[in-house]
Amino acid sequence: MLKNIFSKKRRTLVIGIHGLSNKPPKKLLTHWWRRSIEEGLSKIEGSPTKFDFKMMYWADLLYPTPLSLNAKDPDDPLHIDEPYISEKQLKVKAKRGLIQIFKNLIQYIKEIVFLSKIGLNKFRKPFNAIVKIGFKDLDTYYNEEIPKNEQMFEDYFRNKVRSRFIKLLLKNKRKDILIVAHSMGSIITYDVLLSLKHRVKVKYFIALGSPMGLPLIRENIMKDHHLPFDENEEAFPPTPEGVDNWYSFCD
After folding, report:
1. What CA–CA distance (Å, rounded) separates 23 from 29?
2. What is this structure's pTM?
3. Domains in the chain, please, with CATH?
4. Strand-pair category, 177-182 with 13-17
5. C-alpha span between 2 and 7 (Å, rounded)
6. In this predicted model, what pLDDT tens digit does every residue of 5-41 receive, in sequence order?
7. CB 66 within 8 A of CB 23
8. What share of the chain is helix, strand, coil (3-state, %, to 5)?
9. Sheet-wide strand order for 52-56
10. CA atoms 217, 181, 41, 178: torsion sign
């Protein structure tokens, strides 16, 4: 598959779009994503060694101050819980402390309640409550009050993040594009690609840990794009017209 993804005629542009919550500064996050991709490719014989990479960074739209490597205290809200670590470093890394174990447990419980088949993903009121409490970004994206003044519409978070991504894609539309979207980034990517239709051709859309399969997320997408939706039937949004290949990976 790698031979098809990375064209020999011209270098593929890989665009990464991150997921929920605050992030390190764009420059650092871009560096970590690229190193991670390079590390993965290095394990595959015959994989490419050169590719262009750009980060579709949107954390600054909700979090004015990014996470920092200088925040050493695990209780500091700007502390980076999971900095990029190569596989070799990971193997010799010391065991995590009790605070980190507790944070991981809380995150695990949230994911079970939010994402699992036995969770709340089919019940609108408790689902919305969990999203509002534990997933601020997603709640803002779907439930932010739309400004009544049309001149202020550009300040609407959902519009700002989509506009930023659209500009990036249109600027690079003549390149072979591969999008790697994590978590909520896959929702943003889908919304943008669906609205662009054939204006941009994306050779590969790779979603990592995407919540798009959840019934109530699908419902939000369908209603947001004014697609036919019946609460009594299981409906699925269409594949964006400009996408050649779409892969979804979830652990």
Report:
1. 7
2. 0.84
3. 2-94+162-249 (3.40.50)
4. parallel
5. 9
6. 665 566 789 999 999 899 999 999 999 999 999 999 9
7. yes
8. 45, 15, 45
9. 52-56, 13-17, 177-182, 202-208, 243-249
10. positive
